[in-house]
Automatic annotation (TrEMBL), chain A:
Any Pfam family the entry gives: TusA
CDD domains documented for this protein: SirA_YedF_YeeD (cd00291)
Residue intervals of the UPF0033 domain: 7-31
Highest taxon listed in the record's lineage: Bacteria
Endpoints of the signal sequence: none
Family: Belongs to the sulfur carrier protein TusA family.
InterPro entries documented for this protein: TusA-like, TusA-like_sf
Listed name of the protein: UPF0033 domain-containing protein
From TrEMBL, chain B:
Lineage: Bacteria, Pseudomonadati, Pseudomonadota, Gammaproteobacteria, Chromatiales
InterPro entries, alphabetized: DsrE2-like (IPR032836), DsrEFH-like (IPR027396)
Name of the protein in its database record: Peroxiredoxin
This protein's UniProt keywords: Membrane, Transmembrane, Transmembrane helix
Transmembrane segments: 20-40
Gene3D superfamilies in UniProt: DsrEFH-like
Length: 76, 129
């Protein structure tokens, strides 16, 4: 059964949130969702670029109170 | 054929080491084969006794040290662990400094000479810092 995990990368800067996501994806199973929390707007924009380039799936991106939430599904 | 990125680091400034580490790590986790060549003042921060030591060139280096930017050593190590990156010390710089492979951080690859580096860099996009 697929799981959802949160990666709290608040307070760090590019490419910290991306690298933390990638470390999480390595450990995840196909179909799992990972939600990255980031206070760095550059990372919120850059993570979907990376996800599209390597072929995973962006489930959604949202911002609340200065924290970006990027949800990614591992597809391969 | 996958993309190949070569990165030459000859500067010991925090800003340049950081930019090189960002390029190497993001490139390596995006499907590129990355080869980093450390020479001149770019090598001492990878020596165990002076690991991570870097001079700030200016405002950005100071800010990065003050805030929580991922340290360049961590990013280079992640490039190797999470992606297809190799970080090689320059054999000439090691000779000049009088150090051996055991004096360097564990994630570094074998010492490389310029001839070998040039043949590796043939046809690759190459960045210098």
């Amino acid at each position: 059964m697929s799981e959802k995990r949160t990666i709290d990368a608040r307070g760090t800067f590019c490419p910290g949130p991306l690298m933390e996501l990638i470390a999480g994806i390595k450990q995840a199973e196909i179909g799992d969702e990972l939600e990255v929390l980031s206070t760095d707007e550059g990372s919120a924009n850059d993570i979907p670029e990376w996800v599209n380039k390597v072929g995973h799936e962006v489930v959604g991106t949202s911002e609340a109170a200065g924290v970006w939430h990027v949800v990614v599904r591992k597809t391969k | 054929m996958s993309e190949k990125i070569c990165v030459i680091v000859t500067s010991g400034s925090r800003e340049k080491l950081q930019m090189a580490a960002m390029l190497a790590s993001v490139g390596a986790v995006s499907g590129a084969e990355v080869l980093v060549f450390l020479s001149m003042n770019g090598l001492p921060p990878f020596v165990r006794s002076s690991a991570g030591a870097a001079e700030n060139e200016g405002e950005l280096g100071r800010l990065m040290a003050e805030k929580k930017a991922p340290p360049f050593l961590q990013l280079f190590e992640q490039a190797v662990e999470l992606g297809d990156a190799k970080v090689h010390p320059c054999s000439m710089a090691m000779d000049v400094m009088g150090i051996g492979k055991d004096d360097l951080l564990g994630f570094l690859g074998e010492p490389l000479g310029l001839t070998k580096f040039l043949s590796e860099a043939d046809g690759a996009q190459t960045w210098t810092f």
